[in-house]
Design brief:
Radius of gyration: 19 Å
CATH topology: Cytochrome Bc1 Complex, Chain D, domain 2
Number of helices: 7
Number of strands: 0
CATH class: Mainly Alpha
Low-confidence stretches: 4-23
Structural class: mainly alpha
Number of domains: 1
Mean pLDDT: 85
Strand content: under 5%
Largest sheet: none
Distance between the termini: 56 Å
Helix content: 40-55%
């Protein structure tokens, strides 16, 4: 019985450790082409309003209304999402945010075919920057 209990606890521990490691965030590797990109139209009221509308349609379900990573679908994801209101996120180059938002990776889907207009893409970045 002791051997069984020890084996069971070992398996539970190993699974816990593996799930923790699997959920660990890996850093984004943004190609220079994207990290060098500059926002085309800084966040005026029109652009932010358009960005909010598009963000609500495409991003809110995972990232949440305030960009905290607490949307309705967030708990079903393996990866913890960034909080767009943190100084660390705000310090990222806009081109990096563009790459992460539209090219994506892993659980962050590619949105290049859903949001095809450049002005709309930058409007979403402007809205994210306003959070």
């Amino acid at each position: 019985m002791k051997k069984f209990l020890f084996a069971a606890l070992t398996v539970v521990f190993a699974m816990s450790l593996f799930s923790f490691m699997a959920a660990e965030k890996k850093p984004w590797v943004v190609p220079p082409k994207y990290s060098a990109m500059k926002i085309q139209k800084k966040g005026d009221k029109e652009s932010i309003a358009l960005g909010k509308t598009l963000y609500t349609k495409y991003c809110k379900s995972c990232h949440g209304g305030a960009g905290k990573g607490d949307g309705a679908k967030a708990s079903s994801l393996k990866t913890k999402m960034d909080d767009f209101s943190t100084p660390a996120f705000k310090a990222l180059p806009d081109g990096s945010k563009y790459y992460m938002s539209f090219v994506g990776r892993d659980e962050m889907p590619n949105f290049e075919k859903k949001v095809v207009d450049e002005e709309e893409r930058w409007a979403i970045i402007n809205f994210m920057n306003s959070l």
